[in-house]
Every structure is written in C-alpha cells, then in structure tokens.
Amino acid sequence: MSRLTSDDTISAISTAIGEGGIGIVRISGSKAIAIADELFTSRSGKRAEAILSHQAVYGNIIDPENNEIIDEAIVLIMWAPRSYTREDIVEIHCHGGPVPLRRILDLTLRLGARMAEPGEFTKRAFLNGRLDLAQAEAVMDVIRAKTDASLKVAVGNLSGRLSEQVKSIRQSVLGMIAQLEAAIDFPEDDIEEATAADVAKLINQVKSQLASLLATAQTGRILREGLATVIIGKPNVGKSSLLNALLREKRAIVTDIPGTTRDIIEEYVNIRGIPLRIIDTAGIRDTADVVEKIGVEKAKELVSQADLILLLLDWSAPLSSEDRSVLELLSDRRAIVLINKSDLPPKLELAEVERYSEGRLVLKISVAQGEGLAELEQAIADIVYSGQVGQGEAAFVNNLRHADALRQANDRLADAMATIAAGMPPDCIVVDLRAAWEKLGEVTGDTVGEDIIDQIFSQFCIGK
To answer: What's the CATH code, domain 138-216+397-448?
Structure first.
C-alpha cells in the first residue's frame, strides 16, 4: 500500500480466533455504510445510513441472496472522521463463534470489501494522521502487554508521551537550523561565531534530553519483551522448585532424582510488574545420557543469550566441581547467585562462593520454606530499573527501532559539535543538524521510508 490512503474498503474479524461470547467484524472505507445497508436489518427498520455516529443498533445479519438470517447482531457505525481510521467504520458485534463470524466476513467481501492486510486498520489511522508511527506501534504493545507495568508504558506511548518529547527535541533542532541559516544570510564573522557558540549550548541541552530518553531504553525493552532469565545450576539444586515458586504453581516436575529436567521449560512470570521470560534448564553436569546431554548443551547456549542468570548453589553441600563449572559460565554475564536450602545445616564455604562470584549479588534463600524470595524479587526490580524512574509518568523508549533512531540522532548531534569545534562554516553545521532532525523524525514516522512502514504494520494481527 502506498503512503496515500487506499480507496479500498477493508474488512476483517477483529476479535481473537475461537469461541467467545461476542465477536466483531470490522469494516472501514467508503463502501462500509453501503455494505452494512445490504446485510443488516434493524428491528426498528432504520437503515444503516440513517444511524447516528457512535450509536449501537440491534437487528439481524441477513444474506441478501436468499434472505437467510445469519445471526442476531448489534451494529455500531462511526462516521468519518470520528473513527479509528478517520474513515467510515462499521462494527458488527455478533455471537463469537467461528462460523457466524466467518459467514458475516464472507458477506462483507461479497458485497465489495476486500480482506484487510495485517495491521491495515492501524496503518490507515497513521496515514490519515490520527496516530503517529510511535503511537501506532504502541497499539500492539498494549495488546501484547504482559504486566501492569508493561501496559502502563504502552498506554503512555499510545497517548503520545514519547512522541511529544521527540517532537519537542526535533523542534529544538529545527530552531538551531533556522538560527544558522539566518547567520548564513548575513555572513559577518562575528555573527557566525556567536551563532555557532549559541547553537553549541543548545546542542548540549538536546543531547542531555536524548541521554535521558535513551537511559530508559533497556528498561523499556524489558517491560515490552520480558527479561530473558535463565535458571542454571547442577542437578537437584532446586532450579525447578524455584521456577514453581516464582510462578506460584507446579509447572515443573520436582523429584530427588538428579537429571529430572532434561528439556527447556519456558514461562512468563510477573515480578513486581516486570515480565520475566524465565527458563528452567537441565542441570549442568557431565552425563552419558544422550537426551540429558542435549539439554545441558542447550542450557549453556541459553546462558550466553540471557538478560539475567539466576545461578543456584546448595547451602547443605560443599562447592563441587560441577558448581565451579557452572560459576565459570557466568563470565561477564549479569547474574544473581542464589544459595538455596538455607534452612539446612551449612556445608558451603560462603567466602569461596563470593570469590567465584566476582562481586555479583549473592542471596541465601530457601525455596522449600519460601525464604529470601521477596529479596530476590526486589533485586530483580533493582536491576531492571537501575535506580531510574519506575512506573511513573515518564516516557519510555521500549522499541529497538526507536532506540536506534535516537542513538543515531545523538551521533549526528555529536558530529555537529565536532564541526563547530573545528571552526567550520554554518552550512556544514546545518548538514549535521538536519541529519539529526531526520533521524528524530523516524521515531514518529515523519521521515521514515515506505518500506519501513510496511514492515512495521506487517507484524500486526489482522483486524487491528
């Protein structure tokens, strides 16, 4: 689809696949009202074109070819431009079974609509100026939010919190460009030098604002995608028990037999608003068992990809060669060392563990007794938020595309500072500033290419 809104009328099922109390078929475009007129008969006899905007009307969906009643329904019409896409929209709220939904969708297609592409409703909202690109991307973040904190960040970005900050920074850069271009029009040396000095101060202010935004990128990404957390340790140290305790349900099999967990178990768990994508791995040890060996190798591979490692040791046993092998896997990875079974008589040398841990946080816990788990959750929250703003009203950069554009804008501003320091003329500074201005525009979609737009909306679900 081009950057200009298509004249096609689109239709799709906008509710999740499967059985439900209510299902919704959504139609958007110039033919939406006419299609509704053809297939909907209200109990009051009111035609679709006579229904007021945002008024719900009860009636039947009827196949115009044979007058067969397909389903009872409530039809909601939203006249342009007061709609999600800023086009005429019809929503048909029927029973949420796959058969009535499919029959109604087929009717809309027969009557002149075409099947919507993934994300095409939101894409039209963007192309028609209702949402900028950052807000449009936040729509899927709202849908996919895994915790209240994730949802709060997504809703903030949907409401324009991030976009407003980026647009403000972009306006500041545009102001600098205007100052320099004025100096170019009046090329006295003292004016150019004074203008360059003023711009340098403004660039430092903008770079500080960008630094504050970029400081939220790691936390924002974790809240959006989840903190990839791997539980490792030797067999029978309590890894599966820890997973069950964090999930507050018995998800993994727990026995006294070493090597019970051979495959990888992955679950999402909410830790103080942070979505942990937590992975329970096979116990790491030398083994002749072919299946268990595959699990051990997979566990080692996951360690290299994890955002956080939870390494378990046994308080009731001396540090073994297997424990040392696991500790050596940490290398430069972010990790918390957990000494489990702290309710049992101690046999582990804490000083030796701390020496191997290389300054990482070491916590004593007892999964069986539920001791130390609150401290573990707080430690995870401290790592994620890193002393920055938590779940307040600040904007979060939670998207890798946004973070990359902001970093590149920051680099172009650094280039501008270097150009000023080198005593280059104002038109050279303008080149760098305009490059920064364009990179900032990629966040909101003002300067992004059509191929990027298509790629972004292709990741949406059909019907949104």
So the answer is: 1.20.120.430
Domain with CATH 3.30.1360.120 in the chain: 10-130
**321/35: higher pLDDT:** 35
Domain over 10-130 is classified CATH 3.40.50.620: no
The 10s digit of each residue's pLDDT in 336-395 is 999 999 989 988 888 888 888 877 899 999 999 999 999 999 999 988 887 554 555 578
Indicate the class that CATH gives domain 225-385.
Answer: alpha beta
3-state secondary structure the chain: CCCCCCCCCEEEECCCCCCEEEEEEEEECCCHHHHHHHHEEECCCCCHHHCCCCEEEEEEEEECCCCEEEEEEEEEEECCCCCCCCCCEEEEEEEECHHHHHHHHHHHHHCCCEECCCCHHHHHHHHCCCCCHHHHHHHHHHHHCCCHHHHHHHHHHHCCHHHHHHHHHHHHHHHHHHHHHHHHHCCCHHHHHHHHHHHHHHHHHHHHHHHHHHCCHHHHHHHHHCEEEEEECCCCCCHHHHHHHHHCCCCCCCCCCCCCCCCCEEEEEEECCEEEEEEECCCCCCCCCHHHHHHHHHHHHHHHHCCEEEEEEECCCCCCHHHHHHHHCCCCCCEEEEEECCCCCCCCCHHHHHHHHCCCEEEECECCCCECHHHHHHHHHHHHHCCCCCCCCCCCCCCHHHHHHHHHHHHHHHHHHHHHHCCCCHHHHHHHHHHHHHHHHHHHCCCCCHHHHHHHHCCCCCCC
Instruction: Indicate where the chain has its CATH 1.20.120.430 domain(s).
Output: 138-216+397-448
pLDDT score of 240: 84
CA distances from 352 to 222, 318, 320, 356 (A): 33, 10, 11, 6
pLDDT, tens digit, for every residue of 150-172? 999 999 999 999 999 999 999 99
Interval 85-112 mean pLDDT: 96
pTM value?
A: 0.82
For 238-279, write each residue's pLDDT tens digit: 888 898 888 886 654 444 434 444 456 788 889 988 999 888
